């Protein structure tokens, strides 16, 4: 694909799946919530409940919001635009109608326009990284994007796959778990957080980068920007228009709550403790 | 009219309330005034627009992430929370009601109230410092000419400046007509002498709205004796006093101000000589709903803190929330918060529709002020011994709540206004 030396687009994928589930920190909305978090640390106050048919967790009536890592991705994209290194920031999200609220938040933060890929009902329940990455790959080709920034993983399913799959489908280089990214001519220098420390790589554009926690601190959308965001456009697209089949190859067999924590036993002496451990076969 | 004491009611039930009360009065056929407001008016309050929700969410995030953690130290030190105010200004949370052609966003009172409630949840001291801006600006917004608006409102939109509303005096609070500050016309200027007291932002304001008596004749009617001025704070002769140490909202800057031969150009007179009283009172219809919203935010905070604690603390083998005595306390707090919210929303909505909302604004402010105090005290009660201690957040709420029954029209003055409005409608 012919590309000018100046980066044209940046597309950020916004994950707006339910955020309170799976014991992960809650982004917002609980009757008793006092602290909101964008970092993966604070307590959740929502009681997560498994659906009676054990095919998933209850998401009805649970407020959804932008995945924290995706907020960081959007912030990075806007920072690049403010430095005049990219021309246009497009925010994309896949899901039902409510997803538009999240796209609006990205627009209020500074994205130029949005694309809502409509996936609803049964398709949405089974929507996973493979389908999303196919949609994204198709969109990237259509929009002629030069850079895709996503959150490293969604805090509801913790898959950590979408970014990598997009790169594979497009045959683009990837810089995952980015804690720092710098654009140098047509190469992106990415500092990655890995188990052993920090790894610095240089990847050629077009590329996929996934954002990690320490990449930046997302800004608040200011009130005037929220008002301006109303005028920005959100285009509606269906997966079929992009030639993507969102049928899932996976079948969820069951979803269970973690086992209840058993009560402990108090012992008086160290000998008792050793005795009990031996009984339980632990020593 | 008496009505069943409502708990959190769905909107259609509120309509039922109206039907019940009007049928209870069907004997008094001539009192059509009670059926004044048809039920359809409430339908507008069912759902916030997307934009309103986003505004509310922004204010909520900012309050919970930035104001809540910083509030205790500002309360202890009494230091003016300028960093928080500056941040709120950058986000566009202050000055929303300044008209668009002066650089503001021209928000209605309803939208402003949504934001105010969230900020007050964080800290009412910070919120009062911010609200004083609205109060100071309101006379200019409703009565200023284009030049005055552009000059004094415009600069608020360009920089994070504060302003203040100077009416109360050491000898006259509720009795505004009894103020003694004198303004005498001398050529193209007015020379002002007098003393003001309890002026929020008194030491931080860039300019003041000042009410002074221009007609010395004691027989002159109130509606013609006073004039409203805009005074630059750096005018020679303006002397702010020391920062007063108050019971609550301690980070808010409250001072006495002495005016000694202060010269004000005639261009800074609002509308004209003698129009001041009406302007000063007219501002209240627009600023009372946000004050009520602030009190509601405090009550909401009390409710949430108390609920959180009640679900953590155990006594007699159960969480205290499972004891009916405590859960009933929480239930009553919830009832009051919901009703206070509906009250200020009604008052704000009425004025945004272009109607005179004095009746609703006073009801909202009186009710919200009272319940804020009740809820804060109940929250301390739920916390028990811990509630009395400064390591826990609720004792501050109780100290902060008291002023809501005093400023912006005391609880007693509100009752005076409500009874006057009510009897006035009844007699029609």
Automatic annotation (TrEMBL), chain A:
Q: Give the main location.
A: mitochondrion
Q: Where in the cell is it found?
A: Mitochondrion matrix
Gene label? LOC107671471
Origin organism is: Sinocyclocheilus anshuiensis
Q: Subunit info? A: Heterodimer of an alpha and a beta subunit. Heterodimer composed of ETFA and ETFB. Identified in a complex that contains ETFA, ETFB and ETFRF1. Interacts with ACADM.
Q: Tell me the Gene Ontology biological-process terms attached to this UniProt entry.
A: amino acid catabolic process; fatty acid beta-oxidation using acyl-CoA dehydrogenase
- Which keywords does UniProt give here? Electron transport, Mitochondrion, Transport
Q: What does this protein do?
A: Heterodimeric electron transfer flavoprotein that accepts electrons from several mitochondrial dehydrogenases, including acyl-CoA dehydrogenases, glutaryl-CoA and sarcosine dehydrogenase. It transfers the electrons to the main mitochondrial respiratory chain via ETF-ubiquinone oxidoreductase. Required for normal mitochondrial fatty acid oxidation and normal amino acid metabolism. ETFB binds an AMP molecule that probably has a purely structural role.
MF term (GO), any: electron transfer activity
Gene3D superfamilies linked? HUPs
Per UniProt, residues of the Electron transfer flavoprotein alpha/beta-subunit N-terminal domain are: 54-246
Provide the protein name: Electron transfer flavoprotein subunit beta
From TrEMBL, chain B:
Q: In which pathway does it act?
A: Lipid metabolism; mitochondrial fatty acid beta-oxidation
Please list the cofactors this protein needs.
Answer: FAD
| Domain Acyl-CoA oxidase/dehydrogenase middle stretches | 164-262
Major localization class? mitochondrion
Q: What sort of enzyme, by top EC class, is this?
A: oxidoreductase
Name the chemical reaction catalysed here: a medium-chain 2,3-saturated fatty acyl-CoA + oxidized [electron-transfer flavoprotein] + H(+) = a medium-chain (2E)-enoyl-CoA + reduced [electron-transfer flavoprotein]; tetradecanoyl-CoA + oxidized [electron-transfer flavoprotein] + H(+) = (2E)-tetradecenoyl-CoA + reduced [electron-transfer flavoprotein]; oxidized [electron-transfer flavoprotein] + hexadecanoyl-CoA + H(+) = (2E)-hexadecenoyl-CoA + reduced [electron-transfer flavoprotein]; dodecanoyl-CoA + oxidized [electron-transfer flavoprotein] + H(+) = (2E)-dodecenoyl-CoA + reduced [electron-transfer flavoprotein]
In the UniProt record, the signal sequence range is: 1-24
Domain Acyl-CoA dehydrogenase/oxidase C-terminal residues, every copy:
274-421
| EC id | 1.3.8.7
Q: Where is the Acyl-CoA dehydrogenase/oxidase N-terminal domain?
A: 49-158
Family annotation (InterPro entries):
Acyl-CoA_dehydrogenase, Acyl-CoA_DH_CS, Acyl-CoA_Oxase/DH_mid-dom, Acyl-CoA_Oxase/DH_mid-dom_sf, AcylCo_DH-like_C, AcylCo_DH/oxidase_C, AcylCoA_DH/ox_N, AcylCoA_DH/ox_N_sf
Positions bound to FAD: 165-174, 198-200, 313-315, 323-324, 381-385, 410-412
DNA damage recorded as keyword: no
A biological process (GO) of this protein is: medium-chain fatty acid catabolic process
Q: Which Gene3D superfamilies match?
A: Acyl-CoA dehydrogenase/oxidase, N-terminal domain, Butyryl-CoA Dehydrogenase, subunit A, domain 2, Butyryl-CoA Dehydrogenase, subunit A, domain 3
Q: Which GO terms describe its molecular function?
A: flavin adenine dinucleotide binding; medium-chain fatty acyl-CoA dehydrogenase activity
Query: Catalytic center at which residues?
Result: 408 (proton acceptor)
Q: Which GO terms describe its cellular component?
A: mitochondrial matrix
Q: Where in the cell is it found?
A: Mitochondrion matrix
Keywords in alphabetical order: FAD, Fatty acid metabolism, Flavoprotein, Lipid metabolism, Mitochondrion, Oxidoreductase, Phosphoprotein, Signal, Transit peptide
Recorded family membership? Belongs to the acyl-CoA dehydrogenase family.
What function is annotated for this protein? Medium-chain specific acyl-CoA dehydrogenase is one of the acyl-CoA dehydrogenases that catalyze the first step of mitochondrial fatty acid beta-oxidation, an aerobic process breaking down fatty acids into acetyl-CoA and allowing the production of energy from fats.
Name used for this protein in its record:
Medium-chain specific acyl-CoA dehydrogenase, mitochondrial
What is this organism's lineage?
Eukaryota, Metazoa, Chordata, Craniata, Vertebrata
């Amino acid at each position: 694909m012919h590309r000018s030396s100046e980066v044209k687009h940046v597309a950020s994928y916004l994950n707006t799946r339910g955020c309170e589930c799976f014991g992960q920190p809650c982004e917002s909305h609980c009757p008793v919530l006092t602290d909101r978090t964008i970092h993966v640390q604070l307590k959740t106050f929502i009681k997560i409940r498994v659906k009676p048919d054990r095919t998933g967790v209850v998401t009805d009536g649970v407020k959804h919001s932008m995945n924290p890592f995706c907020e960081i991705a959007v912030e990075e994209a806007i920072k690049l635009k403010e430095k005049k290194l990219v021309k246009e920031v497009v925010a994309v999200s896949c899901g039902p109608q409510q997803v538009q609220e999240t796209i609006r938040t990205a627009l209020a933060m500074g994205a130029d326009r949005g694309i809502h890929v409509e996936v609803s009902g049964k398709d949405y329940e089974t929507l996973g990284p493979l389908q999303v990455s196919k949609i994204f790959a198709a969109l990237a080709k259509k929009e002629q994007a030069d850079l895709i920034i996503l959150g490293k993983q969604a805090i509801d399913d913790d898959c950590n796959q979408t970014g990598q799959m997009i790169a594979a489908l497009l045959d683009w280089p990837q810089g995952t778990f980015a804690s720092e990214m710098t654009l140098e001519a047509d190469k992106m220098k990415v500092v990655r957080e890995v188990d052993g420390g920090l790894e610095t790589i240089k990847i050629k554009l077009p590329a996929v980068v996934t954002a990690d926690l320490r990449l930046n601190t997302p800004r608040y959308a200011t009130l005037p920007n929220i008002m301006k965001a109303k005028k920005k456009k959100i285009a509606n697209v269906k997966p079929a228009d992009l030639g993507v089949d969102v049928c899932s190859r996976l079948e969820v067999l069951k979803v269970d709550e973690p086992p209840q924590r058993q009560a402990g036993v108090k012992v008086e002496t160290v000998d008792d403790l050793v005795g009990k451990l031996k009984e339980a076969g632990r020593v | 009219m008496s009505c069943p004491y409502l708990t959190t009611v769905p909107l259609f039930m509120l309509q039922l309330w109206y039907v019940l009360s009007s049928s209870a009065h069907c004997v008094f056929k001539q009192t059509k005034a009670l059926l004044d407001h048809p039920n359809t008016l409430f339908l507008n309050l069912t759902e916030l627009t997307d934009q309103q929700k986003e505004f509310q969410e922004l204010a909520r995030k900012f309050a919970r992430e930035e104001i809540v953690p910083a509030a205790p130290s500002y309360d202890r030190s009494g230091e003016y929370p300028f960093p928080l105010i500056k941040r709120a200004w950058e986000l566009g949370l202050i000055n929303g009601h300044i008209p668009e052609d002066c650089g503001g966003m021209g928000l209605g009172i309803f939208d402003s109230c949504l934001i105010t409630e969230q900020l007050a949840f964080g800290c009412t001291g910070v919120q009062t410092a911010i609200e004083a801006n609205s109060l100071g600006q309101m006379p200019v917004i409703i009565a200023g000419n284009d030049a005055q608006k552009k000059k004094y409102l415009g600069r608020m939109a360009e920089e994070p400046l504060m302003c203040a509303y100077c009416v109360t005096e050491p000898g006259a609070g509720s009795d505004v007509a009894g103020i003694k500050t004198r303004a005498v016309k001398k050529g193209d200027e007015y020379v002002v002498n007098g003393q003001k007291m309890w002026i929020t932002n008194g030491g931080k304001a860039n300019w003041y709205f000042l009410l002074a008596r221009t007609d010395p004749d004691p027989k002159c009617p109130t509606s013609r004796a006073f004039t409203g001025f805009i005074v630059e704070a750096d005018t020679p002769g303006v002397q702010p006093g020391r920062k007063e140490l108050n019971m609550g909202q301690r980070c808010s800057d409250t001072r006495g101000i002495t005016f000694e031969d202060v010269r004000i150009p005639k261009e800074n007179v609002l509308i004209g000589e003698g129009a001041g009283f009406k302007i000063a009172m007219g501002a209240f219809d627009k600023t009372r709903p946000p004050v009520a919203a602030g009190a509601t935010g405090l009550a909401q905070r009390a409710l949430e803190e108390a609920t959180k604690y009640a679900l953590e603390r155990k006594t007699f083998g159960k969480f205290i929330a499972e004891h009916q005595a405590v859960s009933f306390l929480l239930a009553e707090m919830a009832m009051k918060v919901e009703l206070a919210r509906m009250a200020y929303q009604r008052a704000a909505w009425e004025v945004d529709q272009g109607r005179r909302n004095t009746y609703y604004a006073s009801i909202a402010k009186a009710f919200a002020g009272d319940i804020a105090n009740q809820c804060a005290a109940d929250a301390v009660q739920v916390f028990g011994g811990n509630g009395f201690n400064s390591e826990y957040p609720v004792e501050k709420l109780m100290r902060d709540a008291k002023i809501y029954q005093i400023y912006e029209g005391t609880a007693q003055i509100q009752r005076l206004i409500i009874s006057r409005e009510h009897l006035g409608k009844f007699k029609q």
